[in-house]
């Protein structure tokens, strides 16, 4: 029996040319967003895809190694891998922005260090982090007095609180689920987040800030805002908002809070 590979080698094959029909455009996505997601994250990609206002917004994702535990040591260990992760994002293609999707990690590693890692391989991309995006969102609302909700253990909470205070924010109340395991963070239900958010608020707070990209806070933002009667800023919502605007897209997005509707 003749081997199929031998047959292919000895038989001349010729396809039908459609070269005359070739038409090229700039490819997928007018607004191209790169996303560096933690290896054990379940939430960010889904949230970004759900919040897209239209198909002009294209999301390209890569992953960075992370441990199961969320603590200062594990967060700091991610820093050396950021450039390698960014390098895998459509290497020959243009990206408008690249977001590093870890709130606590961006606080521990530092915004400037993250930008240095990303821009070392993608110099054209605007760098976004959830914590700097969240601060920009809070500033857009003129919110100085904050109620804060996180899933973290207090070792990480202390770093978040210090960062917010250093940025000029006053913390009226700081509440937490006190979870260290990333799997458990991802398993928090929207209803649990909603109930905790209502308990976390204080009348004197200008806004509620919900930290952490791993939890499913985006799906209950509208409910929380209706219950509290004030703006709610979550890590994924703010990060998506800033990447969208930095990419040049000014489309309003319904269903995910005042931030994406109004700014």
Provide structural commentary:
This protein is of the alpha/beta class and 263 residues long. 41% of the residues lie in helices and 17% in strands. It contains 13 helices and 8 strands. α7 packs across α12 (235-247). The model has no long low-confidence stretch (mean pLDDT 94).
Blueprint of the fold:
Blueprint lengths: L3 H7 L20 E8 L5 H8 L5 E8 L7 H5 L5 H6 L9 E5 L1 H7 L1 H9 L6 E3 L1 H11 L4 E6 L3 H13 L3 E7 L5 H6 L2 H11 L6 E4 L10 H8 L3 E3 H13 L10 H5 L1
Parallel strand pairs: 1-2, 1-3, 3-4, 5-6, 5-7, 7-8
Q: What would the keywords be for this entry?
A:
four-stranded parallel β-sheet; 8 strands; 263 residues; 13 helices; alpha/beta; globular; 17% strand
Low-pLDDT windows of residues: none
**Number of E-state strands:** 8
- Biggest sheet descriptor: 4 strands, parallel
> What pattern of helices and strands is seen along the backbone?
HEHEHHEHHEHEHEHHEHEHH
User: In what range is the share of β-strand residues?
Assistant: 15-25%
Radius of gyration: 22 Å
- What is the percent of helical residues? 40-55%
Per DSSP, the total helix count is 13
């Amino acid at each position: 029996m003749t081997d199929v590979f031998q047959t292919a080698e000895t038989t001349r094959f010729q396809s039908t040319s459609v070269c005359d029909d070739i038409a090229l455009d700039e490819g997928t996505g007018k607004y191209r967003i790169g996303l560096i997601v933690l290896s054990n994250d379940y939430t960010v990609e889904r949230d970004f895809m759900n919040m897209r206002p239209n198909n002009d917004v294209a999301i390209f994702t890569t992953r960075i190694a992370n441990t199961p535990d969320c603590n200062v040591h594990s967060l700091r260990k991610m820093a050396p891998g950021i450039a390698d992760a960014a390098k895998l994002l459509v290497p020959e293609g243009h990206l408008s922005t690249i977001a590093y999707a870890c709130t606590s990690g961006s606080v521990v590693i530092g915004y400037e260090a993250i930008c240095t890692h990303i821009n070392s391989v993608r110099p054209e991309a605007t760098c976004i982090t959830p914590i700097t995006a969240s601060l920009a969102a809070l500033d857009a609302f003129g919110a100085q007095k904050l109620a804060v909700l996180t899933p973290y253990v207090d070792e990480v909470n202390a770093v978040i609180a210090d960062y917010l205070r250093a940025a000029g924010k006053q913390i009226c109340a700081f509440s937490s689920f006190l979870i260290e395991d990333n799997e458990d963070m991802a398993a928090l239900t929207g209803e649990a987040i909603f109930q905790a958010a209502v308990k976390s608020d204080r009348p004197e707070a200008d806004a509620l800030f919900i930290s952490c990209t791993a939890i499913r806070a985006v799906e209950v933002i509208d409910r929380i805002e209706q219950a509290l009667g004030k703006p709610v800023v979550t890590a994924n919502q703010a990060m998506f908002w800033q990447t969208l605007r930095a990419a040049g897209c000014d489309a309003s997005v319904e269903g995910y809070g005042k931030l994406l509707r109004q700014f």
